[in-house]
């Protein structure tokens, strides 16, 4: 059984990494950067985003597990005091461990530049595009049909996993991660007598796609989860639900809607 640990780098996470390695060695597990069966994230949801991008090439074979230091996470099922129990379950036969592998959708983004070159990216939470030098002006097509001309700060295309992150701050809906869909949310659109956008977020099924054709000049800020970079001379950007998925190893039930309630509402029903 091979594993690799990605951690947030803070004192508590580093301490837990040492504990994890000791217990894993005692169970005969081997640390492997190249072919991990389990990628273990120790830290926050942001750490799982890092783990996903680091092991983007291992999605077909690796299962992700999260240990959360601090508050409860959307990508983490385990608390620091439960590492021993988790490692025992990771090494138990699947029936005894009640292991369930759940796969969640990702968003695939293809950026085409004026020179014709194309670059493909993947996000676990979301992709965003914003104007740097000026307001973003972009034509949005859905399934190759012109839908609207967007003017504003930017556009956010999120996965169901990312629906509880930036998308939620933008007023988007929360989607159960078992739904194979992507969500388009506006970032501060300009709406008046001259400029008009839908103003609501839209949820596209797996067999649909959207294209963004930037009309404004200058540089764009592109983000993929926690990563960001600048681009110019962007001709088009296609977003669709990826054929690849991320696989999480679940050893006990932790319903998504319980996570949502605990993260955003708390336990108090009064
Ligand atoms: P960060 O700015 O340090 O933290 C962003 C916060 O989002 C953290 O509290 C993080 O949780 C939480 N988070 C990450 N993924 C989540 C998810 N799927 N559902 C609910 N909460 C989630 O940046 P970061 O930790 O590197 O994370 C990058 C993410 O920040 C982006 O993917 C984007 O979704 C989000 N973001 C949000 C806004 C906004 O809401 N206005 C603006 C920019 C970016 P932990 O503390 O557990 O790590």
UniProtKB/TrEMBL annotation:
Protein name, per record: NAD kinase
Keywords recorded for this protein, A-Z: Kinase, Transferase
Keyword match Transferase: yes
EC number per UniProt: 2.7.1.23
Native source species: Paenibacillus mesotrionivorans
